[in-house]
Backbone:
């Protein structure tokens, strides 16, 4: 009767050793699977992601180059001067907006008037 605690302790110690060996074996298997994953599947995923994102990154940098150049698609005002469109100075019809680098002087004379006296000139 006095040996049953020792038997239980020995059985539990043996069981703990078996559990230890089991987990060591599982750990080795998991490490092998992780290495195989990284060498095969992981490498394939890396290649696929690179194939997907490389053109996007290249396009981004090309787009950045395009955007960083001065863009002539937006409008901007151009005031008449004595050298350019002198007949339009003070005219209420003067539009003076450049679209894509092309100046629209007014609705009657889109390219401006050649002399200093425009027949359609009206004061502001």
Residues:
């Amino acid at each position: 009767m006095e040996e049953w605690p020792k038997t239980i302790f020995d059985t539990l110690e043996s069981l703990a050793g078996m559990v230890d060996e089991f987990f060591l074996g599982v750990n080795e298997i998991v490490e092998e699977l992780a290495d195989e994953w990284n060498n095969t599947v992981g490498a394939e995923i890396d290649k696929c992601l690179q194939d997907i994102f490389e053109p996007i990154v290249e396009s981004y940098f090309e787009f950045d180059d395009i955007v960083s150049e001065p863009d002539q698609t937006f409008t901007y005002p151009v005031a008449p001067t004595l050298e350019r469109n002198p007949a339009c100075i003070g005219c209420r019809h003067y539009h003076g907006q450049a679209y894509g680098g092309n100046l629209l002087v007014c609705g009657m004379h889109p390219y401006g008037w050649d002399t200093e006296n425009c027949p359609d000139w009206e004061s502001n």
Q: What stands out?
A: The two ends are 121 Å apart (CA to CA).
